[in-house]
Amino acid sequence: MAKSVHDAGWGMFTRMLEEKAARYGRTFHKVDRWFPSSRTCSACGRVDGKKPLSVREWSCPCGVVHDRDRNAAVNVLAAGRAERLNACGEAVSLPA
User: Fold this and answer.
1) Rg (CA), the chain
2) SS3 labels along the chain
3) Which of 3, 5, 6, 36 has its CA 20 to 30 A from that of 88?
4) Contact 96, 45 (CB under 8 A)
5) Could you read off the pLDDT of 32-87 as tens digits, one per residue?
């Protein structure tokens, strides 16, 4: 039951956020739940393997050291921007 309450709460939150974005002329996109945002290097685009949540920092073979949360935020922002541009009819891809 707790899972269904959580799902309903999250669904209500995203619906309200979507409505508020529309009201103020902003765009709203959901990123896929399984998008590997914390495992993808925001510098080179390489997707690294699974990591336990205790791993807060990781190094990519390209030489960049990532904070897990900051890296995920950069990747989610890039995915949202790519989706917005794609909705406008432009050809886009995530930065490599």
Assistant:
1) 16
2) CHHHHHHHHHHHHHHHHHHHHHHCCCCCCCCCCCCCCCCECCCCCCECCCCCCCCCEEECCCCCEEEHHHHHHHHHHHHHHHHHHHHCCCCCCCCC
3) 36
4) yes
5) 889 999 999 999 999 999 999 999 999 999 999 999 999 999 999 998 888 776 65
- pTM: predicted TM-score of the whole model, two decimal places: 0.71
67's tokens:
């904070």
User: Which residues does 37 contact at the CB level (< 8 Å), separation at least 6?
Assistant: 31, 71, 72, 73, 75, 76, 79
